[in-house]
Amino acid sequence: SASEFNILNDGPPKETYVVDDAGVLSRVTKSDLKKLLSDLEYRKKLRLNFITVRKLTSKADAFEYADQVLEKWYPSIEEGNNKGIVVLITSQKEGAITGGPAFIEAVGENILDATVSENLPVLATDEKYNEAVYSSAKRLVAAIDGQPDPGGP
Question: Does the predicted TM-score (pTM) go above 0.90?
Fold first, then answer.
């Protein structure tokens, strides 16, 4: 499937913060994400996009793919500075998070690592994709807001 390449070429979602190419997210999750992430963008000027893909056909792993998306969607340092990308590969039950310097600094390496090693793969392994994505979003937003870490599953 060429979907992973279509995502690269289509650019960031305009009205939403989600590209659910794997087709695993409910309407409720998409709506909840839009509320959470549009509020974040309004308050903190940081934009977080979520992408689900069933599988990667290229040799890239989740992290390489997330970096490819960031570079393609936001080609300049200025554009990418305050952007974050979360990728969930449903067949491989793995995820990755990348972002520009301002985004990475706002979240912090510890929470980035914890979200990638806990929320995304653990919940995806149980095929709880909605929870994997939404709990990751809540954890990242809490970190950006300096709130206590809600933790992993």
Answer: yes
